[in-house]
Amino acid sequence: MLGSWKGASFPTDHPLDGVLEAYHWHGKRLDDAEHVQPLVFKTMSGGTTSIDPVWMLPIVRWLDRLPIPKSEAVGRVFQMALPLFATNRSCARLRLTNYRGKESATMIYDALPINDIFRKVDANTVFSVMDLKGMEQPFFFMLQRE
């Protein structure tokens, strides 16, 4: 799991389907088990930057109650604001956990009740589930090794 990964939603009619892409989500970066960047976004200059997921708390709290705008304009405004939320600090860690009866690599967020569970598809692809405490349905996404 170590390294940089490019992400994409796996459509299931979840409220987050397409949201991360609209906000220019790039993927995740796992430097080692203790140093993980769960939210890496594309910058306007074409690079990437990591943000601290704690800034997403207001969105997470309303996820099941209100639709999240997915317009290109809102995504661009978010992208312009990325420097306000950027961090070089690790915001999660990686552990092995048991999820639905199978040992799985799991990203445990430091400041939010979120676990991202990863299951290997092949050497360069993982199928992933974002498990948020209190959310009715998990969010599914794919990661491709860069």
Explain how this protein is built.
InterPro entries: DUF4334, GXWXG_dom. Residues 1-46 form the GXWXG domain. The structure is a single chain. This protein is an alpha+beta fold. The chain has one domain (3-145): GXWXG domain (Lipocalin, Beta Barrel). It is 16% helix and 45% strand. The chain has three helices and nine strands; from the N terminus they run βαβββααβββββ. Strands 4-3-2-1-9-8-7-6-5 form a nine-stranded antiparallel sheet. A hairpin with a 4-residue loop joins strand 6 (102-109) and strand 7. The protein is globular. The mean pLDDT is 92.
Task: Based on the model shown, name its key terms.
DUF4334 domain-containing protein; GXWXG_dom; 9-stranded antiparallel sheet; DUF4334; 9 strands; 45% strand; single chain; 3 helices; alpha+beta; Lipocalin; 146 residues
Determine the fraction of residues in helical runs and give it as a percent range. Answer: 10-25%
> Structural class per helix/strand content?
alpha+beta
Q: Name the CATH class.
A: Mainly Beta
CATH H-level homologous superfamily name: GXWXG domain
Mean pLDDT: 92
Most strands sheet: 9 strands, antiparallel
CATH architecture: Beta Barrel
Strand % is over 45%
Domains (count): 1
What spatial order of strands do you see in the largest sheet?
4-3-2-1-9-8-7-6-5
Note the overall shape: globular
Which radius of gyration do the C-alpha atoms yield?
Answer: 14 Å
Q: Tell me the span between the first and last alpha carbons.
A: 11 Å
Distinct helical segment count: 3
Query: Which stretches are poorly predicted, pLDDT < 50 over at least 5 residues?
Result: none
Q: Provide the CATH topology.
A: Lipocalin
> How many strands appear in the DSSP assignment?
9
The SSE order reads EHEEEHHEEEEE
InterPro entries: DUF4334, GXWXG_dom
Protein name: DUF4334 domain-containing protein
Domain GXWXG: 1-46
Pfam families: DUF4334, GXWXG
